[in-house]
Amino acid sequence: MPSASTSSVSSNPSARRIRNIRSVHRGDHVEARSGGHVYYRGEVRDTAPGLATLWLRDEETGAHTAVSTEDFTIWRTEA
Questions:
Q1: Which among 2, 34, 35, 53 has the fewest CB atoms less than 10 Å away?
Q2: pTM for the complete prediction?
């Protein structure tokens, strides 16, 4: 599992789970969750549906991070 800091899922109860990565677009705000924790939160910079991957600009660190939808559930949030 990544070394990113985690926060409780209950921190954003209005988030909606994304089940199809093709519905995610550049500029969307999302959270990447696993095991009841938020590992990444930020703005989508790019997507690769064929690779089940999206790239985020992490809200906390500002770093660009690749997130696999095979390892995390993706949740759409408000900006």
A1: 35
A2: 0.81
